[in-house]
Structure formats: structure tokens, C-alpha cells
């Protein structure tokens, strides 16, 4: 497997699908503010702990911010799909 920014493509795919499934589940369970709650779900559940873990492993604040932003980016596509545009 080819590396994509420090992790394998398969790992990035699994992380993105996990974030998307959490977004879709939260959007389906909530009403009204579905997009904001659905977006916050994977960011809080996966992004914050992953960023904290990077800090605890002494990887630095830059690597921690990259990890957090990767989870934010993973949650965006499904959030845009569940946003009540009409």
C-alpha cells in the first residue's frame, strides 16, 4: 500500500468511512439541527481524542492539529450530504 500523509491508504479509507457513518447516523437520529450535530459527532468522538493522543505521544502541536483537521475533513462530505438545503 502507498502511504498517504503518514498512514496507509486503507487506514485513511477506514477512518473516512467511519466518520461518514457516524455523520449519517447522527443526521438520521436528529431533526432540525441535523447538520451541525452530525458534523460535531465524529469530530468530538474521534478527532479530539486522536489529537489529544498525538499530544500525549509528544508528536507536537502541529501533528496534533493535522490529525484533528483530518477528522474535520473526513466529516465534511457526509455533512454536506445531510444538510437541509431546501
Task: Describe, in plain words, how this protein is organized in 3D.
With 86 residues, the protein is mainly alpha-helical. The chain has three helices and two strands; from the N terminus they run ββααα. 26% of the residues are buried.
List keywords for this structure.
86 residues, two-stranded antiparallel sheet, mainly alpha, elongated
Report a brief summary of the structure.
With 86 residues, the protein is mostly helical. The protein has helices at residues 9-29, 34-56, 61-82; strands at residues 3-4, 7-8. It has 3 helices and 2 strands.
Rounded to an integer in angstroms, the radius of gyration calculated over CA atoms is 14 Å
On the 0 to 100 scale, the average pLDDT is 76
Describe the main β-sheet briefly. 2 strands, antiparallel
Give the low-confidence spans.
none
The proportion of strand residues reads: under 5%
SS content category = mainly alpha
Largest sheet: spatial strand order: 1-2
Helix content: over 70%
For the terminal residues, how far apart are their CA atoms?
41 Å
Q: In total, how many beta strands?
A: 2
Shape: elongated
Count of separate DSSP helical elements: 3
Compressed to H and E, one letter per element, the order equals: EEHHH
Amino acid at each position: 500500500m502507498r502511504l498517504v500523509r503518514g498512514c496507509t491508504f486503507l487506514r485513511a479509507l477506514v477512518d473516512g468511512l467511519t466518520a461518514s457513518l457516524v455523520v449519517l447516523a447522527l443526521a438520521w437520529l436528529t431533526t432540525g439541527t441535523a447538520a451541525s450535530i452530525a458534523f460535531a459527532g465524529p469530530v468530538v468522538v474521534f478527532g479530539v481524542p486522536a489529537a489529544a493522543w498525538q499530544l500525549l505521544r509528544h508528536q507536537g502541536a502541529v501533528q496534533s492539529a493535522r490529525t484533528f483537521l483530518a477528522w474535520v475533513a473526513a466529516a465534511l462530505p457526509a455533512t454536506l450530504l445531510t444538510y437541509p438545503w431546501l
